[in-house]
Amino acid sequence: MPWEPWTGCYKQSDGCTYCYFYGPYSKRCGQNQITKTDDFYRPVETVYMPRKNITKYKMAGGKTCFTCFATDFFLPEADEWRKEAWQIMKQRPDLTFVFLTKRIDRFFVSLPDDWGDGYDHVRIGCTVENQEMADDRLPLYISCPIKHRWIICSPMLSKMDLSPYLHAVDSVRASGESGREARVLDFDWILSLRDQCEKAGIPFLFDGTGSHFMQDGIIRTINPYKQKSIAREMGIDIP
Question: What is the model's pLDDT at position 168?
Fold first, then answer.
């Protein structure tokens, strides 16, 4: 289930250049004004059931709540809203809140006082697109008090050595870039990353080829509706 408490975003690093949501070829290009949405309180909205004389949450428990997948949870414009968003998450321990970020350097801003070593039901992923961003973000990321961590290499724009960081994460996912200006994903980069995960003993998921996929020196243009299925057919995932 999606939860977008705010909307709007803007470029943070090279991986954002052709963002599928806010990039130059997206329908939302230029909509970088950060605004609170009408769904802000969605996880704690309730409904009264007169026949049973009970009030229950509209969003049923036991589900995964994909949070801020069209923006970034740690945007500076959302610092005040984030305080309340953390409290909403705390109120719903029966949901699993999942979000990704390119702004892990802002993790401690507006962090709740009772965070401790993390909430059990909150999973925070860090996105990196090349070696520079991996070496910039991941040392801080693995030092943050987060109970459930995973690395997302998407869009993967270069070969990466993540071996110094894999001991501290639960899994790694990787995929190429989609869109008319997508940059090429080299399958050799994916295989190298998979080998690193295998040595570290953690799961790996090849999540999508992207639009331009190179294998054995040959670049193919992949239909956007087949990018995930072709990646899975490679059979290289580590469960």
Answer: 98
Residue bearing tokens 């998921």:
205
Asked if the bond preceding 2 is cis, omega within 30° of 0, the reply is no
Spatial separation of the C-alpha atoms in residues 164 and 201, rounded to whole Å: 13
Q: Which helix (H) or strand (E) holds 118?
A: none
C-beta separation of 123 from 98 below 8 A: yes
Q: What is the DSSP code string of 154-203?
A: TT--S----TTTGGG-SEEEEE---STTPPPEEHHHHHHHHHHHHHHT--
Residues 115-151 pLDDT 10s: 999 999 999 999 999 999 999 999 999 999 999 999 9
Neighbours of 48 (CB within 10 A): 9
Residues 6+ positions from 86 with CB-CB distance below 8 Å: 110, 111, 112, 115
Angstrom distance (rounded) from CA 22 to CA 153: 19
Domain spans of the chain, in order of start = 2-233
The per-residue pLDDT of the chain, averaged, comes to 96
Residue type for position 230: I
SS3 call for 11: coil
Classify strands 122-128 and 148-153 as parallel, antiparallel or unpaired. parallel
Is residue 166 within 8 A of residue 126, CB to CB? The reply is no
